[in-house]
Amino acid sequence: MRVSIHPADLGGCGYYRLIWPGNALEAQGYAVSVEYDQTYNMVWRNTVQGPSVVGLFNKPDADVVVLQRPLTRNRYEMIGALQAEGIAVVVEVDDDFHAIHPKNPAWIGTNPLNDPDRNRDWLKKACKRADLVTVTTPSLAERYGAHGRVAVLPNYVPKAYTELEHGGSYRVGWSGSTITHPTDLQPVGDAIARLGAGFHVIGTGYGGTDYQGFKIPSPREALGLDFDPTATGWVVIDDYPAAVAELQVGIVPLALTNFNEAKSWLKGIEYASLGVPFVASPTGPYLTLAEQGIGWLANTPDDWHTFLAEMVHDDAHRCALSAAWRGEIAANYTIEQHAPEWWNAWAVALENATRREKVA
Questions:
Q1: Of all helices (H) and strands (E), which one includes residue 318?
Q2: pLDDT in tens, 123-157
């Protein structure tokens, strides 16, 4: 079996979901190639609605093609062109695009009323047409894989994260942006303000104004702080793990919404893999992670304050948690260990395609 994988970006989603698993599989001897666009390989026909994919100029040298979050009409049409040539198609999805907060820029960016040729409805159609859908959480499996051709592949981290030196220069911090997480810091309430330990943001630390003109709070405003948190500014992915490793304690606050229920445990295992113990909101993935002994869960601002204070003010306990959770991630949560699960899922897609062709 030969697999060609096509990440949608060169950010975290592209790397965690396809590039790094693909690279790990290639290193382990599997026939995987990472590509970045098949659009050039399509045959187009002009229609009233615009160019429409009608076939392939050159058939890809692959039995399986994996497309990450195809949100456009031409990507949906491309799936049919690939399948017509006997190629199995996998659609990879790692967010619930049908439950995005209206203040998140991605909401208007994937709204059918904003662009009929690029929107979340094409993603849903692509998932329905695919030979297999791969997702990060059971919630996403329900949303995009109700037809049953779906595999849940949780997020993991590169083994190198567990080997990076832990700096711990800042006592408490968060990796994120309120532009894309406009309501997620608020569950912490005044816990950080009461803690008196400072606050560090892996990100810009800014708020802003959304497309409707509504104000997006900065981390300072969302947490009710009387000081400006320190912030790294935008961090490229190569520098990201070292930036996170500068925290002593991390937080993963999430508003309890359908969108966040579909989010994976990635932020928490990033922290833990880098030696940063963390407190998180009790979404399904973090409940599962806590049951496996990684992460503490907070339901109220008082919970956040109590758990963070224990980690911040008890150095010995914090260091013990850091070592234990980092060891657990190294033993059980690395991409290199789990990459064959991606391969096995792609093999199921090929089996599904074979059955589809026989029925046809």
A1: helix 315-332
A2: 999 999 999 999 999 999 999 999 999 999 999 99
Do 55 and 45 contact (CB within 8 A), yes or no? Answer: no
Contact 215, 209 (CB under 8 A): yes
| Helix ranges, 236-314 (H) | 240-244, 258-261, 266-273, 284-291, 301-313
CATH second-level architecture of 159-332?
3-Layer(aba) Sandwich (3.40)
Task: Write the pLDDT tens digit of every residue in 218-258.
Answer: 999 999 999 999 999 999 999 999 999 999 999 999 999 99
Domain boundaries, the chain: 3-156+335-359, 159-332
- Tell me which H or E stretch contains 336: helix 335-359
Contact residues for 278 (Cβ-Cβ < 8 A; gap 6+):
249, 250, 251, 252, 267, 268, 271, 272, 295, 296
Polymer length in residues for the chain: 360
Task: Answer whether CATH 3.40.50.2000 is correct for domain 3-156+335-359.
Answer: yes
The reported pLDDT for the residue numbered 101 is: 84
Phi and psi for 107 in degrees, rounded to 5? -65, -55
